[in-house]
Amino acid sequence: MKHEVVEIFHAIEREILDSLARISAPDEPVYACSFFNFYWDCQEIHEPYFTYNIESSESSRDPRLRWHPGDWMYDEHDTLGQSIRPLYLSLSQALKQEPKDVWEKVGEYQDALYCNACMKLNNTVTEHNSPFVGWNLTDDFVIGVLDWGRGDIMDELAKKSVGEDRFDNLRIFKDHPSWQLENAHKNSFSYREELVDKGIPNETAWDLAVEKYPLPKST
């Protein structure tokens, strides 16, 4: 990857930290912040959205929306987004005419950068130099990459950005019906294959798999 591209990403990370410190956070407790809606298409790369939510909001009490950043109360895309947009324009220019495999590496690099940055922020949130000094945060506050549009790697990105223990303890995504349905399907398919490999007939294996991993009742 070009040195210029790496330097722009480093500048983006610095600008994000500065912007977080400048946000006028509400007095009410904030339980989560999220980056999401990452986009690139081999022609352009756009800055992600950034939102956060408070415990007193209606969306925080809805299991379908608590970890769905697109429905959160505070959208900072016009503040934090504007501060990093010029850098993303420079990034698009630097990547102009690059082949698809380079863009894919850039996408992977960006994922890692945001996940690592979030993990650092989570691990240092109470320190005096944290950009969240002055924010009213819950004891279990997290900032992460909670991006429903990422399909199969959605859980992986969330875990890498908040930590696997926090992901499990806070039940991130897990109370949403679509997450439950998808994981029931994944687990039942995997268990069926395991049983078939052991010599159990396919039809019987399916019945046992569905019994072990039933579909959510809400569906």
Can you characterise this structure?
The chain has 219 residues and is an alpha+beta fold. It folds into two domains: 170 residues, no CATH class; 35 residues. The chain has eight helices and six strands, in the order αββββαβααβαααα. Strands 5-4-1-6 form a four-stranded mixed sheet. β2 and β3 form a beta hairpin. α1 runs antiparallel to α3 and α7 runs antiparallel to α8. The longest helix has 24 residues.
What's this model, at a glance?
The protein has 219 residues and is an alpha+beta fold. It is 52% helix and 13% strand. It contains 8 helices and 6 strands.
Q: What's the structural domain tally?
A: 2
Q: What is the overall pLDDT average?
A: 91
SS element count, helices: 8
Low-confidence runs of at least 5 consecutive residues: none
Number of strands: 6
Largest sheet, strands/sense/barrel:
4 strands, mixed
Strand content: 5-15%
Strand order of the largest sheet: 5-4-1-6
Oligomer: single chain
H/E series = HEEEEHEHHEHHHH
Shape: globular
Instruction: Please compute the radius of gyration using only Cα atoms.
Output: 20 Å
Q: What level of helicity do the residues show?
A: 40-55%
Quickly give the structural class.
Answer: alpha+beta
What is the CA–CA distance across the termini?
Answer: 45 Å
